[in-house]
Amino acid sequence: MPFTIKCSDGNCNKKTKSANIVELINKHRDGNGQFICACGQRGYIEKSFSLQEKGQVWEPYLQGIITLGKFCDSYQPFVFNVSYSPNGKTDSLWFSYYKDLRKQGGRLKLGYGPGGPPVLHKDMLKELIKKLIELQILTKEEIKLLAD
């Protein structure tokens, strides 16, 4: 599945293409996992999905990806950082995974379709929470309130 990153800079009209999820993760993110345009500025991916509810559409803006798996594993869970405007702050998370068996003669599968949701080990969940705090999507205070 190809992805198109649009630039967050209104003066840049570049669109950065990525052939698949592996290329998107490995070549089109900054050190914090945010998507970047070919010009070097932050970018986003527009998506649109018709819902089962007649006439309703889900239109998220994907701002970046938090990876959760070990680099060498074929099963790679990750989380899209989602906002509801092109330059919006992430306020939602879309859990997904990919499985890359191309080196073993298989195929690359992106798992937010009929394959069901990703499965996360509790250590992956702890790492995700740590990353969400680092990216200021959640605060330490919000996490502490959950424990009380």
Short description:
Helix content is about 20%, strand content about 30%. With about 150 residues, the chain is of the alpha+beta class. The strands form 2 sheets. A 7-stranded antiparallel beta sheet has the order 2-1-3-6-7-8-9. A two-stranded antiparallel ribbon has the order 4-5.
Tell me about this structure.
The chain is α+β, with helices and mostly antiparallel strands and 148 residues long. Helix content is 19%, strand content 30%. The chain is built from 3 helices and 9 strands; from the N terminus they run E-E-H-E-E-E-E-E-E-E-H-H. A 7-stranded antiparallel β-sheet has the order 2-1-3-6-7-8-9. A two-stranded antiparallel sheet has the order 4-5. Strand 8 and strand 9 form a beta hairpin. The radius of gyration is 16 Å and the shape is globular. The N and C termini lie far apart (43 Å). The mean pLDDT is 92.
How many H/I helical runs?
3
Quaternary organization: single chain
Please state roughly what percent of the residues sit in beta strands, choosing from under 5%, 5-15%, 15-25%, 25-35%, 35-45% or over 45%.
25-35%
Series of H and E elements = EEHEEEEEEEHH
Tell me the total number of β-strands.
9
Rg, nearest Å: 16 Å
User: How far is the first residue's CA from the last residue's CA?
Assistant: 43 Å
Mean pLDDT: 92
Spatial order of strands in the largest sheet = 2-1-3-6-7-8-9
Protein structure class: alpha+beta
**Fraction of residues in helix:** 10-25%
Largest sheet: 7 strands, antiparallel
